[in-house]
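Can't paste images in this forum, so I'm doing it all in text. The chain is below; anyone willing to post the predicted structure tokens underneath?
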Amino acid sequence: MIAALFVAKGGCYFGLDGVDPWNEERDARLYPGPYPVVAHPPCERWCMLAGLVEHRWGHKKGDDGGTFASALASVRKWGGVLEHPAYTAAWAAHGLPEPGTYGWQRDLFGGWTCQVAQSAYGHLAQKLTWLYYVGNAPPPAMRWETPAGTHKVSRFDDTGSSQPALTKKQAKATPPEFRDLMLSIAKSARIEK
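Text version of the structure:
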């Protein structure tokens, strides 16, 4: 069994054998274990647009109700993988080492970080993503290429790209191949107590 934490109700982690999805209603901050996790804590208060969110709606940068801290604690306690957008401010706020652009890097707590492009796993946008993994087995090999994708994640993308912007729902979506990879990483991560 794998626990999928902070996932969208009815999203790609629902209806799968061996997956226990925790959406907002179940409050994944209360996850008691004992299964390894795939954690997708909300990113709006940590991402590169968090300053805009704070300015426009008053939501303080980093004030996520403890969701990232809870996800990180679950990964460290039960094993598994946490994913967040590349360049997330949550990494520095929680003492995680910023990953390089290729390969896994070890941290002082026995975890591993890396950067991957979800476009290598079927996302329409490049969607650079940082992963944090903890488990008994070494982290798996990944696709390290960074295909450009056919779309940009946000209309606020100021790179000058003429690509069409994804809807908010499309941008947040996890491609099935990437979801399956996250589940396989979590399965290999069980921490023996």
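The chain has one domain: 2-186. The chain has a mean pLDDT of 86.
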